[in-house]
Every structure is written in C-alpha cells, then in structure tokens.
Description:
Oligomer: single chain
Radius of gyration: 19 Å
Shape: globular
Strand content: under 5%
Largest sheet: none
Distance between the termini: 49 Å
Amino acid sequence: MDSIVTFFENLTSLQKFIWIVACLSVFWILEGVYPLKKHQYNKWKHAKTNFVLLFSTMIINVVFGLITVGVFLWIETSNFGLLNMVDWPVWVEIILAIMILDFTSQYLVHFLLHKIPFMWRFHTVHHSDTHVDVTSGTRHHPIDFIFRETFALIGVLIAGLPVSYYLMYRILTVLFTYFSHADISLPTKLDKAISYVFISPNTHKFHHHHVMPWTDTNFGNIFSFWDRIFGTFIYKDTKDIVYGVDILDAEKADDILYQLKAPFKKGLKSATYKA
Length: 275
C-alpha cells in the first residue's frame, strides 16, 4: 500500500490530464459500439460545447488546487480531521476517505444543487444537454463547478485527508463520472447488479430525464447507497427517458453563450423550484 500512496502523492498534472483523456476516449469508443440510445446528432458539435465547459472547469480546478495545497499543509501541521483521530490500516482509511468525499462533494452538493433555487439555476446547464453521452460528464457551468469544489474542500477538512487520498478520490471520480454519463448499453442484469453499490450508466440516465420526479433522483457519483439510504434512488425503464430540462430552450443545448448566460435569466424556474 505504501507504494500506491507514494504514487498518488507524486501524481503530476500531466498524468491527471492523460487519465481524463484516456477515460473520455475509452467510453467514447464504447458508446459508439454499444449505444444505449441511437441518437441522430453531430457528436463532435455536441462535444465542442461540453469541452469548452471542461476547459473552464480545469482553470477553476487549478485555482482550487492552489488553495487545496494550503489546506493540506495546515491539516498536516494541525492534525485536524477525522482520520487524524484514529490509527487504522491504510486501506481502511482510503475507503473511508473516498466515502466521505463522495458524500460531501458529490451526493450532498448535488442534492443541494437541485433543492436551493439559486444553485439550481447554474446546475440547469448540466441538465440542459439533450444528448447525454460521455462528454456530458464535463458539462458544468463554472459557478456550478465552484460550488462542487467548495464542498470538496469541506470534505477534505472534515476527513483530515493527506493529499494522496484526495488524489485517489479524484482519479476515481473522473472514471465514474464518464462511466455513468457514457451512452453505453450494458446488459440490464449487469447494470442492475452494479447499481446496488455503484452508480451505473442506466442509474444516472434517469437523473437526466427532462421532468420530475426522475430529475430529483440518483444524485450519487461513485456510490449508489447514499441514494438508497436517503430515499432518492430509482431504477425504471431507460426507454422512457427523455433528456434535457423543461425550463431551458432545447434547441440551444449546444449554444455555449446561451448556456453560460441562461442561469442569469430573469424568471428562470420550474413549477417545483420557486425563486
């Protein structure tokens, strides 16, 4: 385990970028061979919008990375956080760290993005995608991503994480983000089996249905048991899924300027989210 921890402690930005490209590429190929929905759309035009948003979030990630370095140094000197109160085997601490981060910086913030009207405005950009595929995992309005990164920092502080554990989580969350958004068709029995512990591709697709109540389900990213514990898990028939969100113009799903400005529109709300 020590060699694994050391590897992640020294993970470079280039290695992280290669991992992102590799995950995107693998699932891009797989969804071309085993598609869940046989969309008739320009895949590259659709991807361009999502890649622009990916670029903006990577810039934000660099800024938060600098802040995070200071947080890790403070944790190391102050011994703050849950993991600094115990002396457990490294593998147990890693699992606990990933669970804490998955709950705070994925499930909890995602739940709040749907329940707090101001946050929901920015999260609508992620839901406005009418052709959900692997690139949709990169589709976040910059302010939506700032919310997410803030909660990730909160998770780091609560757990008192070393940088190696945090980077393990980041590598895993990239994998599961692209896995769950990828337009791939797994055998239903396999997808359901995966969904008992992890967020499977089908599981997350219900979350991207264009109207309630499915929109407010399956908030997890890595683990599905948060949704099961808090009663937000569903699993239905993927044939009934229609992607998009009912309060934005579906014809402008790939219009980057429209998507960036949409959260600031006056009166942007649905019947469920009252401003």
